[in-house]
Amino acid sequence: MRIGLLTSGGDCPGLNAVIRSAVLHGIKSYGDEFVGFKGGWRGLIEGDYTEITRHDVRGLAREGGTILGTSRTHPYNHPKGGPENIAKQMKRHDIDAVIAIGGEGTLAGAKRLADDGVPVVGVPKTIDNDLKATDYTFGFDTAISIATDAMDRLRTTGESHHRCMVAEVMGRHVGWIALHSGMAAGAHAILIPEQKVDLDQVCEWVEQVHSRGRSPLVVVAEGFIPEGDDEALAGKGHEADGRPRLGGIGEWLTGRIEERTGIETRNTTLGHIQRGGNPTGYDRVLATRFGMKALDLAHEKAWGHMASLRGTEIVQEDLASALDGLKAVPAERYEEAKILFGR
Amino acid sequence: MRIGLLTSGGDCPGLNAVIRSAVLHGIKSYGDEFVGFKGGWRGLIEGDYTEITRHDVRGLAREGGTILGTSRTHPYNHPKGGPENIAKQMKRHDIDAVIAIGGEGTLAGAKRLADDGVPVVGVPKTIDNDLKATDYTFGFDTAISIATDAMDRLRTTGESHHRCMVAEVMGRHVGWIALHSGMAAGAHAILIPEQKVDLDQVCEWVEQVHSRGRSPLVVVAEGFIPEGDDEALAGKGHEADGRPRLGGIGEWLTGRIEERTGIETRNTTLGHIQRGGNPTGYDRVLATRFGMKALDLAHEKAWGHMASLRGTEIVQEDLASALDGLKAVPAERYEEAKILFGR
Amino acid sequence: MRIGLLTSGGDCPGLNAVIRSAVLHGIKSYGDEFVGFKGGWRGLIEGDYTEITRHDVRGLAREGGTILGTSRTHPYNHPKGGPENIAKQMKRHDIDAVIAIGGEGTLAGAKRLADDGVPVVGVPKTIDNDLKATDYTFGFDTAISIATDAMDRLRTTGESHHRCMVAEVMGRHVGWIALHSGMAAGAHAILIPEQKVDLDQVCEWVEQVHSRGRSPLVVVAEGFIPEGDDEALAGKGHEADGRPRLGGIGEWLTGRIEERTGIETRNTTLGHIQRGGNPTGYDRVLATRFGMKALDLAHEKAWGHMASLRGTEIVQEDLASALDGLKAVPAERYEEAKILFGR
Amino acid sequence: MRIGLLTSGGDCPGLNAVIRSAVLHGIKSYGDEFVGFKGGWRGLIEGDYTEITRHDVRGLAREGGTILGTSRTHPYNHPKGGPENIAKQMKRHDIDAVIAIGGEGTLAGAKRLADDGVPVVGVPKTIDNDLKATDYTFGFDTAISIATDAMDRLRTTGESHHRCMVAEVMGRHVGWIALHSGMAAGAHAILIPEQKVDLDQVCEWVEQVHSRGRSPLVVVAEGFIPEGDDEALAGKGHEADGRPRLGGIGEWLTGRIEERTGIETRNTTLGHIQRGGNPTGYDRVLATRFGMKALDLAHEKAWGHMASLRGTEIVQEDLASALDGLKAVPAERYEEAKILFGR
Q: Which of A103, B310, D27, D319 is the most buried (most CB within 10 A)?
């Protein structure tokens, strides 16, 4: 087969490992040829691609980012998009199948294309861990690793100054990064979009910890909204295009905690470092296995399906199941974490 | 309740995180008291313990090792061991339950004690990932992380000198560390105890890679035995007490590869650095959740049971299931990895 | 001797290593006793201290922060401060000498006290590397290490999205952190307080890099002021107490670059993670040697002097020399770095 | 100018950063052209080289190893070597100058060639820090960083098991890596080639630490020879080609300590991971500055000279001064470290 690869959506450590393993598996096991579309769906729609040889994927398991580039182009919204044009492009360039690596939006596009007869399979990608169709995705573990390391550093400074430290992590709609990195770092409060918590409660946790002579660490997901403070937060949050506005929730919260408790408080917004750089060993293994599975799916003509992790196994899932709403942090996982808050 | 904790067997990143979360959960949710037995079962048998307060577990989520110390004492083999003495010790010191954190041997002891009426629950611990009763254990991810990082370093040196690099990792009976770290590092051959591979095959992989102008990376688990070479290996391997002998399999293999292929080859035996130091975020989360679950099991009087990871959930397993033979790397996982060998 | 230690000013990796080595050296070589003043000069002024034994400094070489806590109290501005009260406190508690570990302000206070007859020696501390009296201080290398690692991550994301990435690092008055971390990360522009650069120049560098198909990385010290834009920046920068205001120079610059060049641009403000956590090996060695030297200075009654690094040697410097203005980045070092900008 | 670059001797983190900065500086400041000789002097002697463009050095500041490859070929010992042939090769390929990056042997060769009229300048490279002609070389800080991190891990395992841990680090002739990494990790004994220490003394230090309930950490350079034990060590050490024999000094010492003290003792030989992988920020800055200086030296026709670090400045040194014997650890530096041994 002659297979086209594309990476779409936000950057994520492990994309290159997927590309590498799909290509190596295809060349070795099936004698496949590969092309890489540049800048996600745009490359496919515009026929902008490059051949990918074994040499091109050399050493990629450990490299962050994507050699193909990425964009937020949607296969149906682009002026030249849609299944007919895409099928035409594939035919013109003699491409038998597309492996689309991306998040919810990408997989939704892939599903719709497959339903419209385009031979597409998917690989799920999200550092946010917000897809129901898989236990975990690559990129999430790297984000946890980076955030945990950063919080370990914040804690020593907090203790030296007897300050409260606030760390704002990624997670506009779900709180998985905050939950796991906060638990790993021993945070005294974790605030996530799925759970309303009011400022009084946050300040109570902070004060409990401070009164024991310790320095409170508060982890907040960028999408958290404090209960009863929607107004205060109006105009906060994010731009339409997903870019954080000046002074996100971390900054806002820092001011409120200091104001109410009188405890010196400092914010750090971890930002883009959470989604770049070399993937962890965990993410490289997962991405490598996903890449091989996606290649197998293409050979099985399992269009409209994607690779997925269930327990320790890589299985196949219908892309439809990836699109059935975001995977929120369940209430019981938050309750579990909450046991360690405060005091 | 008044609960005793013990850590037993080889060191493992995450032990302190288990201790911390069990203690914090117990104090906060149930008003429990805690003691820590020193040096594993020995401390329990000899009544050598210390009280553990909230202050003692402060900051422990990130610390490697175990504040309780560990040993290889077995609860039945110790002269003063056995269920009656242990029950007596618990009564004397007013201890209602024991949480035993350890590997296969420890859990077997815990199971037998529970069967003999001692109130014990377990937490599985093995950096080797060799327990069937849980998807993963804490410590494994940290070992992968350390080994992967080391191999990334070996590769640049291999490339600079056009050498073959051999990395010997832990895994006397199972090859999980070799499999995952080798896949993460893009190894060209992975050799594990579960799979017989002969030297001709290894050298063929090495030569394929070298002939493409690249530097082969061979990852070998300490317990790997090359097919047909038992004799050559006689006297190699490990001492009765588990200590590696001078010149383990990595050294041996390095000599053979160089001899047969004429390619300059170097060995690095990663050794004890794989099991020490700060746990990864992944392992901290898992250990923290295990600690809380074990505490709940004690309150549920689920004696003879242990915490276990299944998919993304922490569940309870009968300790008997932990003892049903080692969890070997399945043939299909090795075949999956093998796709990327050689060439 | 009975010696008091204090740490003062902002947190800095290596403070604990200084404390440890001074204490171990004193106990072993001279039979000294040690106390630690809590919260910097405040502890000395108020007689708030604790005995420090060998046990207390165990394992401290690798720990970030300071076990003594720190504050910004000045020995002369505190209501009960001044040389007479301090001498009285020292006499009351039988303390023969003080080792003051801190930055410019701390060392100025130490100098003045020594001139007023109080037996004080100093250890220089600044992550900013802004002291003329020593080649380097501990904490600086750790800050470079953290910032470089963060920028490595930002670069992969920049490349994946063909974005310009801006990284704001510490350095309100001097640009050493920006200079070294930017050079280490291969930045395409480095902007520091010592050098006026106008926006046109910055945008030209950014466009040169972007036009070659690469993703520009711009590193900016928090204290940089673009030429001719003082007005635009009015109200930006920092609060009186040193806390960054919402939207520092990194945010501001990001907006301007995007506006003018049309290239998608993102800011990351590294913030407090640059000054916390475990010190690098380099900083541990330097801090350890400083601690031992300061102890020797106390025994030599070299009041008003401090430990200093010159080349590879630890020497003694008059505290007066530490206070002779900030050590700015010399023009020739900036010119050297500039060779690699743009294009 | 048209300038040839070569890297020679053992691998070292920072080689690629030297190449990159020399090339970028040359292209931008002087309009130079560059070629890279493959495999050190061999490439020069045999005319085996490749053009190096700006594109080829992209992203190299952070990459370990050398894109040019390396070897131990000597410019005078190779059958086709010697100044006449080399000059002829340079003329044939229109090369005006050579920048040779390497250790003592390489720089000796460069000096002799320069004396014989070949236009060569040098860049010092050694992870061992054994060159008198410069305060530090790139690669050393990375080695310290890796070794320190490994020892931090060994310590937690030592403490958990109440064992003595031995770490063997690089340093066949000088003990700088052992000295700095041991001091950084808080080692209880550091053993280096420059200082004779007998086993009784080592065991006394180990026992002092163990008797306080702590776990001794012993750091030994591979070239250390215990006093009075030359016989016992006969046959130990290294092969003629520099490869460690089975069971180096670390293994040997581990056996002796356990034998004499009865304390369970374990060895870890860090090996090749010390010289591979991404350089630290410190080493990237130093290597970058060295590369730019070497390029300037070529334009100044300062043949027979090399870049050198003195304090914080990059200066020029005669290559002769690089060859005036190894830079050993001075006795006073060992005495300084020794203060923290034992107890």
A: D319
3-state SS, D109-147, equals HHHHHHHCCCCEEEEECCCCCCECCCCCCCCHHHHHHHH
Contact criterion met (CB below 8 Å) for A225 and A196: yes
Q: What angle do CA D341, C33, D217 make, to 5 degrees?
A: 20
Evaluate whether C166 touches C267 at the Cβ level (below 8 Å).
yes
Q: How many CB atoms lie within 10 A of CB A74?
A: 18
Contacts of A270 in chain C (CB under 8 A): 273
pLDDT at position D235 is 46
**Element housing A266 (H / E):** strand A265-269
Put simply, the answer to whether D281 touches C311 (Cβ < 8 Å) is no
* B280·A285 Cβ contact <8 A: no
Q: Is a pLDDT exceeding 90 seen at residue C261?
A: yes
Taking an 8 Å cut-off on Cβ atoms, the answer to whether A152 and C247 are in contact is no
Q: What is the largest CA-CA distance in chain D?
A: 70
Q: Is A214 at the interface with chain B, CB within 8 A?
A: yes
Q: How much of chain D exceeds pLDDT 70, in percent? A: 94
A154 touches C276 (CB < 8 A): yes
Q: Is C145 on the interface with D (CB under 8 A)?
A: yes
Residue-wise pLDDT for A94-108, tens only, equals 999 999 999 999 999
Q: What is the pLDDT of residue B231?
A: 52
| Residue B69: closest C-alpha in chain D | D160
List pLDDT tens digits, range C283-330. 999 999 999 999 999 999 999 999 999 999 999 999 998 788 899 999
Residue D80, min C-alpha distance to chain C (Å) = 38
Task: Tell me if chain C has a CB within 8 Å of the CB of D79.
Answer: no
User: What span, in angstroms and rounded, lies between the C-alpha atoms of C225 and C256?
Assistant: 13
At C62 the three-state DSSP class reads: helix
The pLDDT, as a whole number, for residue A229 is: 58
Q: Would residue A324 show up in a list of annotated catalytic residues for this protein?
A: no
**CB neighbours of B290 closer than 8 A, spacing ≥ 6?**
B18, B21, B123, B124, B138, B307, B309, B314
pLDDT digits (tens, 9 = 90+) for A112-157: 999 999 999 999 999 999 999 999 999 999 999 999 999 999 999 9
> Residue D335 in contact with residue C292, Cβ under 8 Å?
no
Residue-wise pLDDT for B207-231, tens only, equals 999 999 999 999 999 999 998 755 5
Nearest CA in chain A to C250: A246
Chain A nearest C-alpha distance from C245 (Å): 9
Active site residues of D: 128
At A245, give phi and psi (nearest 5°). Answer: -70, 160
Give the integer Cα–Cα distance in Å for A43 and A36.
Answer: 8
Helix (H, G, I), strand (E, B) or coil at C201: helix
pLDDT at B240 over 70: no
For residue A11, the chain C residues in CB contact (below 8 A) are 156-157, 160-161
Give dist(CA C95, CA C111) in Å, integer.
18
Nearest Cα to Cα of residue C152 among D136, B58, A142: A142
Asked if D330 has any chain C CB less than 8 Å from its own CB, the reply is no
Per residue in C229-254, pLDDT (tens digit) is 555 554 454 444 444 445 699 999 99
- What's the pLDDT at B238? 46
Distance from CA of A226 to the nearest CA of C (A): 20
Q: How many residues does chain C have?
A: 343
- Closest CA relative to residue A185, chosen from A231, A216, A228: A216
| pLDDT recorded at residue A311 | 96
Strands B305-310 and B313-318: antiparallel
- Cβ A162 vs Cβ A175: under 8 Å: no
pLDDT 10s digits, D72-81: 999 999 999 9
> Taking the model in full, what pTM does it have?
0.95
CB-CB contact of D336 with C289 (8 Å): yes
